[in-house]
Amino acid sequence: MTVTATVEPLVKARNVHKAFGDVEVLKGIDMDVAPGEVVVILGPSGSGKSTFLRCINHLESIDQGSIMVDGEQIGYELRKERLVKLGGYAIARQRRKIGMVFQQFNLYPHMTALQNVIEAPIGVHGESRQAATDNAMKLLDRVGLASKVHNYPRQLSGGQQQRVAIARALAIRPKLMLFDEPTSALDPELVGEVLSTMRDLADQGLTMIVVTHEIGFAREAADRVVFMDGGNIVEQGPPEQVIGNPQHARTRAFLSRFI
Ligand code: ADP
Ligand code: MG
């Protein structure tokens, strides 16, 4: 007899459908993400990448299918074997497991880097100021901003602001991090420092789903690359397969723009 290790996926999306009005934007997405896995989602504009991330984080509700994160169904719970929609408080609790970083960093302009990072831990999660500050200082150090903790966003470059936003997302101690085109709003010379921070997080074992057009990052940091088009997953696999030897014409057409 053989004993095998089974690891439950951290994210389990099944047949996820989402429409806006008559337009079906997600047409049955299935995706598992294992703990510690780094998944990069590639795809043309309008293919549903952001919508899918927003559904995982319950910023959008889904029309059909299910999304499980860390064993809990997003937006719902079972009560007496019936699926019941969760209210705002319970959704907020689920969201604490998930950190999200957006293209626009959306830092609070009137708060320093440190204040931005401790705001949710203190205000939402009831951490003591001391504990939240200690953790925030560690996180800001981890993203290379130990010397900028008392700077305001306007005193920071775009790349530094995005790294503060990453530290802020990490401050709630999420099990899963979602990144939606985190470098798309940056000047080209600032992209590298943000990608390198993300690569460090990936190396440290954080579970990440990253939507990006940075093919180099996908190639180097992804355990798996998922190519989406038209609300479907067209193909997925290790980067050397999907980027190095794409099987579908749509994937090849998309990738040809980056060469
Ligand atoms: P991507 O991130 O891959 O560029 P999105 O998920 O942002 O794609 O969008 C997919 C499609 O859904 C687009 O056609 C977009 O216009 C549409 N869409 C996204 N959000 C909304 C919304 N809140 N209301 C209506 N349409 C939306
Ligand atoms: Mg998008």
UniProtKB/TrEMBL annotation:
Mode of membrane association: Peripheral membrane protein
A family per Pfam: ABC_tran
GO molecular function annotations of the record: ABC-type amino acid transporter activity; ATP binding; ATP hydrolysis activity
Subcellular location: Cell membrane
Predominant location category: membrane
Keywords, alphabetical: ATP-binding, Cell membrane, Membrane, Nucleotide-binding, Transport
Domain of life assignment: Bacteria
Domain ABC transporter: 11-255
Coiled-coil ranges per UniProt: none
SUPFAM superfamilies on file: P-loop containing nucleoside triphosphate hydrolases
GO cellular component, one term: plasma membrane
PROSITE patterns: ABC_TRANSPORTER_1, ABC_TRANSPORTER_2
Presence of the UniProt keyword Nucleotide-binding in the record: yes
Family the entry assigns: Belongs to the ABC transporter superfamily.
Annotated protein name in UniProt: Amino acid ABC transporter ATP-binding protein, PAAT family
Organism of this sequence: Faunimonas pinastri
